[in-house]
Design brief:
49% helix; alpha/beta; 2 domains; 3-stranded mixed β-sheet; 2-enoyl-CoA Hydratase, Chain A, domain 1; single chain; Lyase 2-enoyl-coa Hydratase, Chain  A, domain 2
């Protein structure tokens, strides 16, 4: 049986590749269940310091599998409720993961695939790839955290424009709007994202994890409560072996070796 998700290990970096190329890596219920399972496993594995998410074949992810949803005996409303109930734990796992997550957008990222890319920490996009929010064109609303991440990346007015008109977003436009970190030649997105992941693993993943959590939570915290969380996190980072190594390296005027512990 073909694996619906391929996991590939390169040192301390894991590549998670959606593997339904014949369906442009559309997400049905089975794929979403596996996605949550694998993301949880990667999150809990201390030997993994970064993860790259991409798709096999020509697409990153075309979104939720509409044919699957429409074919369910309980009807489309229940099917979409069921799908979102598996997609949302996956995107939460990415946001709560205390390590960098990079999306390698090798082809179209639409619907839930668009939301999945946006919830990652960084995005590397192939030159010919496109983004489509896609939901509103079929009479649905954006899910997968897209209505949370999109306005925070591009601003409220631009997010409303994307939601209303659903025009394809080219890699050039995505870069100009801040939707992606980098645009690369076709066929190079996964390699470039993996290079970026390896670069990030050379730094303090522990301090990145705390910074990621604080930035994510900042939208929901009063200022006074949030800076108290910063103070606590700062102390925890200083107590961690990576923080201790970084501070020693600063005093000794050398480059820190965060992976030596």
């Amino acid at each position: 049986m073909t694996e619906l998700i391929n996991l590939k290990r390169d040192g301390n970096v894991v590549q998670l590749l959606l593997n339904r190329p014949e369906a442009f890596n559309a997400l049905n219920f089975e794929v979403m269940e596996l996605l949550v399972e694998h993301l949880t496993s990667v999150s809990m594995d201390d030997t993994v310091r970064a993860m790259v998410v991409s798709g096999e074949g020509k697409a990153f992810c075309a979104g939720g599998d509409l044919k699957w949803a429409l074919g369910q005996p309980e009807g489309a409303p229940a099917a979409f409720h069921k799908l979102a109930g598996r997609l949302h734990p996956a995107v939460l796992e990415i946001r709560r993961m205390r390590k960098p997550v990079i999306a390698a957008i090798n082809g179209v990222a639409a619907g839930a695939g668009f939301s999945l890319a946006l919830v990652c920490d960084f995005r590397v996009m192939a030159r010919s790839a496109i983004f489509r929010q896609a939901y509103t064109s079929v009479g649905l609303c954006i899910d997968g955290g897209g209505t949370f991440t999109l306005p925070r990346i591009v601003g409220l007015a631009r997010a409303m424009e994307i939601a209303a008109f659903d025009a394809p977003i080219s890699s050039e436009q995505a870069l100009a709007w801040g939707l992606v970190t980098k645009v690369v030649d076709d066929g190079q997105a996964l390699q470039e994202a993996s290079t970026l992941a390896r670069q990030l693993t050379q730094g303090s993943v522990h301090s990145f994890g705390w910074s990621k959590q604080l930035i994510t939570d900042s939208f929901n915290s009063p200022f006074e409560a949030h800076i108290e969380r910063e103070r606590d996190a700062l102390s925890r980072c200083a107590a961690h072996h990576e923080g201790q190594e970084g501070l020693r390296a600063f005093v000794e005027k050398r480059k820190p070796k965060f992976q030596s512990q």
